[in-house]
Amino acid sequence: MTVAKISQPAPVAGSKIVGLGHYRPDKVVTNDDLSKIMDTNDQWIQSRVGIAERHVGADTDTVASMGAIAGAKALADAGLDPSDIDTVIVASCTAETQVPHSSTQIAATLGIHAPGSFDLNAACAGFCYALAAADNAIRGGSARTVLVVGSEKLTAWTDPVDRATAIIFGDGAGAAVVTAADEPGIGPVAWGSDETQTQAIRIETRDASFIQEGQAVFRWATAAIAPVAIRAVELAGLQLADIDVLVTHQANLRIVEAIAKKLISSGARPDLRVAKDIVTSGNTSSASIPIALDRMREAGDVSPGEMVLAVGFGAGLTYAGQVFRCP
């Protein structure tokens, strides 16, 4: 009797990012604006989280609509058409509804026909998780060209007068196009979670708002995330001195600076360029890394081919990081 055997497609050497795009809503809310509706002021906010302003979506801005705009820009940047995309992955923790999922809505808006599509929720680590999923799918032969989107409308899930959260969150979307490559342009992911702190950032019921234990998250992030970033560099077979740009999740400027300081003291170059988009975008969760990187490109602060270290972290508490070359 002949035994049937399952076959798998031949593995691909690697994947790379070939396009980036982002979207920030037009409405800007400054710290002075917030001081009119709650007990706060610009100095208090900037000294604690480093944020000067954040972008807030209009009623017509949704996770899917913002993601589609960012996705279209990433496709244009890559010089590709919707027909070139075979998979769409969306990272978000603030979708308005669970069904239909955001990735299929974005695909429909962009005219991407019959892609594999799914959403994932790893909160503020979501973009790094989604990028890893795209890389793994391509290297395993399940996909060839993937649109990865991080999109969030956090203000819709935030109590507008809660000083612990309303000063932090903003809205927006970022996207990347990932394709197969003869030489890896994305390193292995270093990911995990801290199951002892699942309640540190939470939404308790379907109609509730974000609750954040700010001090607990701050202590955890400033202690735990630099080692994750270092591990991601090691997995890529690189040294910290090889990294040109650090793009962490834009949670809090003090956290961003603390992580950068630890990496430099561990061997990263003193001239390491550090994304600080938190100042004018606020915390946009899974959208923050692609928004920050794309805005650095626009400003000329990062160039094609340079080595980027990205690390996301947030509710769960989840974390993930990887090294990749800037498109």
UniProtKB/TrEMBL annotation:
Q: Name one GO biological process term.
A: fatty acid biosynthetic process
- Give the pathway listed in the UniProt entry for this protein: Lipid metabolism
Which InterPro entries does the record cross-reference, listed alphabetically?
ACP_syn_III_C, ACP_syn_III_N, FabH, Thiolase-like
Q: Which family does it belong to?
A: Belongs to the thiolase-like superfamily. FabH family.
Q: Which residues form the Beta-ketoacyl-[acyl-carrier-protein] synthase III N-terminal domain?
A: 118-194
- Give the species this sequence originates from: Nakamurella panacisegetis
Name of the protein this chain belongs to: 3-oxoacyl-[acyl-carrier-protein] synthase-3
Q: Which UniProt keywords apply?
A: Acyltransferase, Fatty acid biosynthesis, Fatty acid metabolism, Lipid biosynthesis, Lipid metabolism, Multifunctional enzyme, Transferase
Query: Which intervals hold domain Beta-ketoacyl-[acyl-carrier-protein] synthase III C-terminal?
Result: 235-325
Q: Which GO terms describe its molecular function?
A: 3-oxoacyl-[acyl-carrier-protein] synthase activity
Return the Gene3D superfamilies for the record: 3.40.47.10
